[in-house]
Amino acid sequence: EVEKIRIKITSLGLTESRITSDETIQQLFVECRLNNFLAEETPLSLPKPTGGQKIHYNYSTVLNVDKEDNHVEREYLKSVLLKPDLPADSLKFTVVSDPPEDEQDLECEDIGFAYVSLKEIFQKQRDIIEEDIDVFDSQDASAVIGKLTVTVEALHALRSVHEECKND
């Protein structure tokens, strides 16, 4: 069986903040990053949600973490489990503002970050299924600007990596 981490980005809702009132922010997409070697993003950017609405991406991706072909990912997962002080033990979701077609001189801008701790999934022995996680303002890490609904199924892979650590 190929071991994998399954990630789904379901939807995004914003609370009232500088983001909702900023008219240069119109289209949003979401990037998911694992440490420094993997980044996936939703193929679509969607119009910014207003007033309590959500935008739905329903985007799924799978990261293979089997021994044979995915050594780097595997070693990273080992380090997550073995090194308690590793800061980068999370999947990082970034909400990105995609400039409108007619404003191509504007850059894509990171407007918010959300995190899922792989270590926590292992400690609690529980995958994250369709949970709302906080999105923090990229300019003020204490401010929550919305909720991202995500699924992260990693427990099976983490258990397998953990078994391997014990046998090393």
From TrEMBL:
GO CC list: photoreceptor connecting cilium
Location of the RPGRIP1 C-terminal domain: 3-164
InterPro entries according to UniProt: C2_domain_sf, RPGRIP1_C, RPGRIP1_fam
GO BP terms, alphabetized: non-motile cilium assembly; retinal rod cell development
Record's signal peptide: none
Alphabetical list of Pfam families matching this protein: RPGR1_C
Origin: domain of life: Eukaryota
Gene3D superfamilies in UniProt: C2 domain
GO molecular function: thromboxane A2 receptor binding
Name of the molecule in the record: FTM protein
Source organism of this protein record: Eulacestoma nigropectus
